[in-house]
Amino acid sequence: MLQDTAVYIRRCGVFSYPDKPPFNPDRPYPEYPFSSEALRQLEKGYENPVYDNIRRLLYEMGLDRKNYGLPCWNPLKEYIKPGDTVLLKPNIVLHENHLRHYGLDCVITHGSIVRAIADYVYIALKGCGKIIIGDAPVQACKFDKAIRHMGLAEIKGLYKKHGFDVEIIDFRQEMALLDNRGKICAIKKLSGDPRGYSRIDLNKESMHDEVSEFYESFRVTNYDPARMKEHHNRQVHEYLIPNSVLQADFVINLPKPKTHRKAGMTGAMKNLVGINGSKDWLPHHRRGSISEKGDEYLHKDTFRRIHTYLQEKIDISSIRGRKRAVACLRLLQMANGIFRKGLARDDYREGSWWGNDTIWRTICDLNRLFIYADREGRMADVPQRKCLSLLDMIISGEGEGPLRPSPKPAGIIMAGINPLAVDTVAAGIMGFDYNKIPHIKRAYSIRTYPICSFAPEDIIIHSNTPEWMDLSCIKYDNTLKYKPSSGWKGHIELK
């Protein structure tokens, strides 16, 4: 079994992905269960170095090392047994990069990562069980388009050909429909998780409890704030967790680490925000300035308050299909922006800056739910599950992530059992100080439903890059020097 404090980094020297789904390996490895497909690809001159590097990483993690190189090599057998249901949780945040000329490789988990780890799950299941691939992306995501880019249909088809079921689930209960200007014009109900959902209330144990007197200012952009108040207030702090997550026998977390405008960075911990079925149950910021007990922006600003008020009215009117009201409100918002131009004391908005005091609480709450909620959605005193986190950093994202990142070819894959340990190390490699990333720093001090039982200095790093073998030795000069988002620049970097 892997230690919670162990983090594994493999610098691959690979900075691109194979482009032919279902992303078969390019050689017939001894343990590979579908060798005929690999041989056919090999004949065509096909290359898949991503698969090979994930295979090497599993070996370097010491998983079933004695059988490596033999047909019986089964690296995940300590965690997965025949008949189990295994959830793969990639990062499927959106179907497009808002910086359109850069594409999706720096936004969502690549399908070749999903395929490679799915094969080793299949080997552990011995053909008996189920693999679920699921996520809850942002409300405007066209899920079908995103999974088409990932090649998930081809991966599902390959397994089906061999008599094995792979289920692909959009965990959202609804999605936003956009008009030709990219603005929300309607809300469409979705079928969601076929196994249903569990409402889990952390109540006084929520990280939001200490600011619950300000619950009326809790916000998530482009949603009706009235619904937020139903689920986060002085009495309740609840989340909606898909039963496919709670009832899975093992979970493999497959994040796409990148910079994040609200959280500073996103990795293994932030990727678990995608296990919540309704986004309007997720506080992302608090309305208003710091002096007004909010964290939307730094300085008090009447024009910005008007902008927020109008935007909320636009969101509500859009959801209810009131097109004429939306048009009038947008004109008012445009006029307000003209008057405000040049008068702003800061350029922060929607909690997209280093002073965000809300999103870290949501991230930590969801990680605690994931660890301690049992199969029926009841919080237990002892951990109910672990997951393997495998980070796709072959091409990562920097700048205005998560929806407008620029590609960062990092050529890395990382793995570990504890998401906090993995993110602590990932932050350092990116060139960031984990003590300046609230959801990482604050997680170490949680005592009820703790995310870890160790301190940062207890983390043990295994890497083929010597300067990354010790957390205390990771200095800015030997990192990958990610460019932070504009709201975090100068406030997150390692000194």
Describe the fold and architecture.
This protein has about 500 residues and is α/β, with parallel strands linked by helices. About 30% of the residues lie in helices and about 15% in strands. It has helices at about 35-45, 50-60, 110-125, 145-150, 150-160, 225-230, 245, 270, 300-320, 325-340, 360-370, 420-430, 440-445; strands at about 5-10, 85-90, 130-135, 165-170, 175-180, 185-190, 195-200, 220, 240, 250-255, 260, 265, 285, 385-395, 395-400, 405-410, 410-415, 460-465. Helix 3 links the parallel strand 2 and strand 3. The longest helix is centred in the middle third of the chain and has 18 residues, at about 300-320. The model has no long low-confidence stretch (mean pLDDT about 95).
- Determine the number of helices (DSSP H or I, runs of at least 4 residues): 13
Helix share bin: 25-40%
Mean pLDDT: 93
What shape does the CA trace take? Answer: globular
| β-strand number | 18
User: Low-confidence parts lasting 5 or more residues at pLDDT below 50?
Assistant: none
Structural classification: alpha/beta
The main sheet orders its strands as 4-3-2-10-14-17-1-18
Q: How many strands, what sense, and barrel or not for the largest sheet?
A: 8 strands, mixed
* Amino-to-carboxy terminus distance: 36 Å
Strand content: 15-25%
- The gyration radius over C-alpha positions equals 22 Å
